[in-house]
Amino acid sequence: MSTTTFDPAHPPQKMLSGSNKESFGYATLQSRLPVIVSKIVDDVYRAYNGLDADPSLDDSTKKQKEQEAKKIIETIGALRYELQRDKPFRPLTDSYPDVKEWNQALETFYSGSSWYKASWLFSECYLYRRIKEAFELSEHWKDYDPFFRQKSIVFKSSQKAVVAIAARLMSPVSAGSASGQDPLQDVNQLSSLDVLISQGPDSKGTQEAFYELAQICLWGNATDLSLLDNPDLAKVEELQRRMLMEKSSSSSSLGSGETLLGGSPDQQGAEGIANDEPTELEKHAEMILTNDLDKLWGKVKSLRNARVDIILDNAGFELYVDLVFADYLVRAGFASEVVFHAKRIPWFVSDVLPFDFDWTLRQLYTGNADGLEAFFDPEDPAEQKAIKDLGSRWRTYVSNGTWRVTSHDFWTSCYAFYHLPTLPTAADLFGDMQKSDLWIFKGDLNYRKLVYDCLWPTTTTFEEAIGPLGGKAPAGRKAAGVPSLVSFRTCKADVVVGLAPGVAEAMDIKAKDWMVSGEYAVISFS
Ligand SMILES: O=P(O)(O)OC[C@H]1O[C@](O)(CO)[C@@H](O)[C@@H]1O
């Protein structure tokens, strides 16, 4: 394959790079990535110390595993050193299927280059690929995910929001039915989004549910572990509050028994909260700096039994809200097939691997079956049931083929998504994705790869910035076989497009780190 037309080193605008000391790329290479790498060492130590307690290993395998763990720890330490001293990149030496493509790109575009000189995107992707190499060169640790422990801890700490959302979706109709009103006549009387959605694709309830769940899906991207390089669980909880339909004047803790996600007007009145108070979710709508939800709704409402592809980002809570949104699309009749694209190798700390997907569903539907301790253990039996029912429904989607999880090496390559339609090694992926009616890209890294991670003026249109995937592509998006697409992204890198004139300047005054803090977001539709 010739890589000359697939160039990760020369994006259409000046590339983001760690060579600029003012950039977030520099800060990431300088302080965040070394911490992430050190945590891998800690994790392998812990795994290695736990080997003795593993009854499935015979003595000789245990010994081999221990020796390999020591080697991995050494290799990861050396990798941190290379990064911190800005040593030149070296070719990969394992035999994972993508190695040839990586080495070709290194040789063609980055020969003699190094972490701070190359594009930030390339360096960061290369780092995660080198981490994979350290494990891949072993016999017993090839499939080990050094980030799984962190993913699981943070997901567990998301219980309050997980439960609140499950209850919002699944709990039975409350006030409307209790007051004898026909709940389907008055959507405000309903506590269950499931009931709203079941009114059919053209109903007001389905539309309201769309706006709420799409924003929940967006803000799920705020809690990823690569940004929280020292995950502070209280911070995770705080970030998740924004997804709830709580009134903003309510207390700042998610204590049990409080009215989460709305509830009936009566309930709110009883708590002394005026109905016209904005909810947390509504308040945060102002933080979506370019918001194409209306355009997305225009597309979604035209779909019937369509195929929707979701290019996943993080495991844990973000995956959970992605599944909530996918569930909505199916329940409302818009989609009959949802394809989830996961990563094949541990990536940017918390990205979803196929294993994470299955594991997440299991934690939900298993509950405390067989007397085992449930992963989520809300005291209220109705909440326990809501989680279990939701998980069981999702398991059925997987077993009957409504939901499919897939993965491809393209998502962990060094290439921007500009190259998806033409990169020979992605031809099978692109061919399959062309059968879809809508692509939903989650998260910051997917956004960076969509817009080629370069310094576009912030008023550049999204259509233009995504090049061949956009409507402004020379052949036109449709001719190129690309369906409508949307990006749900909280901003964690110093690139953003699609802003109205003056917005970036106003933000610079309002919040210096608005581009990278994860506090602000964009929803961009093409
Ligand atoms: O999980 P997300 O939203 O893709 O975020 C990953 C992003 O986090 C960061 O590590 C934040 O610096 C970026 O390098 C990367 O783009």
Automatic annotation (TrEMBL):
Composition bias, Low complexity: 248-264
Catalytic activity: beta-D-fructose 1-phosphate + H2O = D-fructose + phosphate; beta-D-fructose 6-phosphate = dihydroxyacetone + D-glyceraldehyde 3-phosphate
GO CC terms: nucleus
SUPFAM superfamilies: AF1104-like
Keyword Metal-binding: yes
Segments for region (Disordered): 247-273
Domain Damage-control phosphatase ARMT1-like metal-binding: 28-241, 275-505
Enzyme type, top EC level: hydrolase
Gene3D superfamilies registered for this protein in UniProt: 1.20.930.60, Uncharacterised protein PF01937, DUF89, domain 3
Alphabetized GO MF terms: metal ion binding; phosphatase activity
Keyword vocabulary terms for this entry: Hydrolase, Manganese, Metal-binding
UniProt-listed GO biological process terms: DNA damage response
Cofactor(s) in the UniProt record: Mn(2+); Ni(2+)
Signal peptide per UniProt: none
UniProt entry tagged with the keyword tRNA processing: no
EC number from the UniProt entry: 3.1.3.-
Function (record text): Metal-dependent phosphatase that shows phosphatase activity against several substrates, including fructose-1-phosphate and fructose-6-phosphate. Its preference for fructose-1-phosphate, a strong glycating agent that causes DNA damage rather than a canonical yeast metabolite, suggests a damage-control function in hexose phosphate metabolism.
Entry domain remark: Subfamily III proteins have a conserved RTxK motif about 40-50 residues from the C-terminus; the threonine may be replaced by serine or cysteine.
Family under the similarity heading: Belongs to the damage-control phosphatase family. Sugar phosphate phosphatase III subfamily.
Protein's name according to its UniProt entry: Sugar phosphate phosphatase
